[in-house]
Structure formats: C-alpha cells, structure tokens
Amino acid sequence: MKKLSLIIGLVAITLWAMAQRNLVRPEDVKAFMASTTYVVLENNPTSEFNIEIREAVERSWKITPYKFITAKEFNDMRKDIDKSFLVLIQMRFDKDKIAPTYNFLSVSMGAAVSKITDMPDICSVPLSYKDLPDDTYTYKLEGIIRFMQNYINAINDNPKLIKKDAFKFYNKNMKQIKSKELWVTESALEKNVRPLAEIRKVYKFNIKVVNPEDIQKAILEKNPNVLYLHKVGPEGSRLQWRVWKMILGAGDDQLYYFDMHTISKSKGDGFLAKDFAKINK
C-alpha cells in the first residue's frame, strides 16, 4: 500500500524527523479547535487504512467538523491556515544511529510553508514501521483517534501540558492499570515474556493475551474495564531501532503508560519485562 508522503508522487515533500518540528503553540491549538479537519485518504480507495479511518472518523471524530479529501487535494490545500488535517505521514529521525521510516497518524494545521515539517503539529501518534502491513495497526485506529482528541482537549484546556515529550505526563495514570484488565497481543510482547508463565513472574494483575479482533471489539464497545497495548516495533523490518509502547483505555481513551526504547541485545521488539515491572508497582 502506498503511503502519503513524498515517497508517492502526489505529495511533493517527505516529512522527516519529528525532532525538527516546532513545538505546538497554544494559539495553534485554538486555531485547530475553530477549524474544519480534512481527513486525507490514500489513492487506493479499497485500502484497509481508507476503510478503517473512514469508519472510525464517522463514528468517533467529535472535536471538529470534518471532510474527507484525496492526497492530491491535501497537497493543494495544506497551505491554508484555516484548515486542519488528519493525515497518515512517514517520518524518520535522522539523528538516530539507525533511521528507519515510520508511519505516524498526525493532526496538523495548514501553513503557507514549503516544508511539511514546518506545519504546526498538534498531535502525532506512531502507528508502525513503514513497510509493515496495514493490519498491524488498523484494528486500533478508532481508539487512537479517540485518544488524539482526548489529548488535544487536554492541551487546549491546560497549555502547560504542551511539552517536547508530549505524552509523558500521562504516566501519572500508571498506578491505575492494576485496577483494570490489560489486553495484549502476543506479537506486542518481547519474546522473553510471551509465555503467560513468564508474564506472571513480572506482572501480578489481570492480563489477557488476545487477538487483534478482541481489542477492536473492546474499543468499539468502549469497554470500561479493558486497557490495551499499542506497540510499534520493527516486526522483522530490515532497519530496526525504535519501539514505542502505549497502554490505552478502551472505554475512556486515556493513556495510562507511554515509553520508547531502542533495539539492543538486552531490549528486543516488544513490551519488556522492565515495562511490566514499572506497571506492577
């Protein structure tokens, strides 16, 4: 599936290095709240991303009015300062020792700038490594866009929450994880902790290893008792570096845990024993 970036022909600028993007300003957030959000669809109308994002937005996008547009229309409209965009982009962290390209779901404001990296980035969430199949993340899309709206409302109400490490402040919710049931897929766990017997050694509270469809169902039903793990890792990609880990509420769309590590001999692709130790307290 072709992703929206300069890697395809319709959009002429690749979005590199999130670290180069300017920190969002409170006035950018206010401008977003007053805007119409244009949801950018991919060229293939039957792509899994298009199907899932359209359904998720129609059900759950409440924060602004919205319209669906094509990649070409995005390229024509992105310099309009009164418009906001929900768009799948590709980003690379050029300062990393190893620099794979990642898929991010981004909410950005239009700006009359030549570089997409200079568009105000209201909120961006990692989805996957670039070349992985859509189904590594599409079953979680509705939960992710609900969380993004939750986050934007939070920074709109309290601009002091706007920081470089955007989601770290949610780790204050970590102690609440043990009061709910944590759902994970086996592939989201580092190999050493995939057996339930190993998980039990480092995490003593309620946890289930489930299928992606189970997580999607919990999100759709807004199950208040379920938390789910969103892990972004290489999963066999040639270039391997960053692994993001987010624990989200299926019912309240809150973030309960956020961390990122880089691949090493002691830290593999997935939620680590060390992560379980943190949330076990």
Explain what you see:
With 281 residues, the protein is an alpha/beta fold. It folds into two domains: 18-161, Rossmann fold, CATH 3.40.50; 168-279, no CATH class. Helices cover 25% and strands 24% of the residues. The chain has helices at 26-33, 48-60, 71-77, 141-157, 196-202, 212-221, 273-279; strands at 36-40, 66-69, 83-92, 101-109, 121-129, 181-184, 207-209, 226-232, 242-249, 255-262. The strands form two sheets. The protein has a five-stranded mixed beta sheet. Strands 7-6-8-9-10 form a five-stranded mixed beta sheet, covered by helices on one side.
Determine the CATH topology of the largest domain. Answer: Rossmann fold
**Integer-rounded radius of gyration:** 18 Å
Tell me which CATH architecture of the largest domain applies here.
3-Layer(aba) Sandwich
Shape by Cα distribution: globular
- The largest beta-sheet arranges its strands as 2-1-3-4-5
Low-confidence stretches: 1-19
Run of helices and strands: HEHEHEEEHEHEHEEEH
CATH class of the largest domain: Alpha Beta
Distance between the termini: 42 Å
Structural category? alpha/beta
The residue-averaged pLDDT reads: 92
How much of the residues is beta strand, in percent? 15-25%
Largest sheet: 5 strands, mixed
Give the SSE map:
Blueprint: H1 26-33, E1 36-40, H2 48-60, E2 66-69, H3 71-77, E3 83-92, E4 101-109, E5 121-129, H4 141-157, E6 181-184, H5 196-202, E7 207-209, H6 212-221, E8 226-232, E9 242-249, E10 255-262, H7 273-279
Parallel strand pairs: 1-2, 1-3, 6-7, 6-8
Antiparallel strand pairs: 3-4, 4-5, 8-9, 9-10
